[in-house]
Write a structure and sequence with these properties.
One of its GO terms (cellular component) is cytoplasm. There is one protein chain. By secondary structure, the protein is an all-alpha fold. It has one domain. The protein has 14 helices and no strands. The chain is globular and about 70 Å long. The N and C termini lie far apart (65 Å).
């Protein structure tokens, strides 16, 4: 089947294998449920997300959503989305199994496998934009990040940084779309790599714009963090056009620099953890943490493990430990952990600013 060949690996591991073209849809659904879980978790620690994340557009006259309302609406949306996407995923899986079992090019199975990923992606993105007006608003102004109020800036940051975690699934989805709708000439050969640069360029532009507006030099360092991911993409491109001259050690060094840079920034700047014993030392407020210390240690360890997952898999068959494309799933989970501690640090910051006033 053109563009949707089912590998021998897939034939032997149906329990955990999802076609690359379907992966972005599965991960989007997982991300929706993870957001609902994050709200529930933070609620158990009396952390009010409505004070940290803006839920209404600036020109809306309606009252902001409370944390309880956000939690209820997110669960309702996750259930509604699941009722649509899960049956479509099952239909696609049945078509895959049918194609493998019969080893025949069934036109019906071929059509379903080819078109279902596009249909699901349109449904998911359409429902998110339609049901969450603040996301719709921020997507339209993604490059014109608003630095005030702080709760509005947090929406932009959460949205843009989460997009960077979907880079690899989007690459796979772009390759699938290129095969499905575009010709196979050289013009579209590296279209997926251009897509992979889009989330990085969005964050780089946002950092530069914020620096221009506020003259905070740390934003230039943050931009440099995202720039450190570009050489990795360039190495992938070079490995495609000059496979004989490609040196894997070079890309490994770039990956190491990027992993170290992003890990330190996550912990020190985003989570504001500057002490392993006191979590946040030299802080005016005695209530500078929300969670038990063990949770912070677990968060740092998990972030470290996923950031350097590529090292653990270097000498493994097919560069995997658990299952095919495992890192894409682990990265979405890592991002949810990042969101938890990012919201917690923002909550502490906003609360302390209000106390000082």
């Amino acid at each position: 089947m053109t563009g949707v060949e089912i590998s021998s690996e897939a034939k032997n591991s149906w329990g955990i294998y999802i076609l690359a073209s379907q992966r972005v849809n599965v991960l989007l659904l997982v991300a929706v449920w993870l957001w609902q879980w994050i709200l529930k978790l933070l609620s158990s620690y009396q952390l009010d997300v409505s004070t940290v994340v803006q839920s209404r557009r600036p020109n809306e006259m309606d009252l902001p959503l409370s944390h309880a309302q956000m939690q209820r609406l997110s669960r309702r949306f996750a259930l509604r989305l699941s009722r649509i996407i899960v049956p479509l995923q099952l239909i696609g899986l049945v078509c895959q199994i049918w194609a493998v079992a019969t080893e025949q090019n069934s036109d019906v199975a071929h059509f379903m496998i080819m078109m279902l990923p596009v249909i699901q992606f349109i449904i998911i993105v359409g429902l998110i934009i339609r049901n969450c007006q603040i996301i719709n608003y921020c997507i339209k102004r993604i490059l014109l990040i608003e630095t005030t109020p702080r709760s509005m800036r947090n929406v932009y940051i959460l949205l843009s940084d989460t997009l960077t975690s979907f880079t690899k699934p989007l690459i796979d989805f772009t390759l699938y779309l290129t095969t499905l709708f575009l010709s196979r000439d050289g013009l579209w050969t590296h279209c997926d790599l251009l897509i992979s640069l889009l989330p990085l360029n969005i964050r780089i532009w946002q950092c530069v714009r914020e620096f221009y507006l506020g003259r905070d030099k740390s934003l230039l360092v943050n931009a440099l963090k995202y720039i450190s991911g570009i050489p990795i993409v360039m190495c992938v491109w070079y490995s495609r056009i000059e496979p004989e001259k490609h040196n894997a050690n070079v890309v490994h060094w770039f990956q190491c620099i990027n992993s170290c840079f992003t890990l330190v920034w996550d912990v020190r700047m985003d989570w504001k953890i500057n002490s392993l014993t006191r979590i946040r030392k030299n802080h005016k407020s005695s209530q500078n943490v929300i969670f038990p210390k063990l949770l912070y240690y677990m968060g740092i360890l998990f972030d470290f493990s996923i950031k350097f997952w590529w090292i653990w898999t270097l000498r493994r068959p097919n560069h995997t430990i658990l299952f095919a494309s495992e890192l894409q799933y682990l990265e979405i989970i890592r991002r949810s952990v990042w969101v938890i501690f990012k919201l917690e640090s923002e909550y502490v910051t906003i609360r302390n600013l209000a106390t000082e006033k």
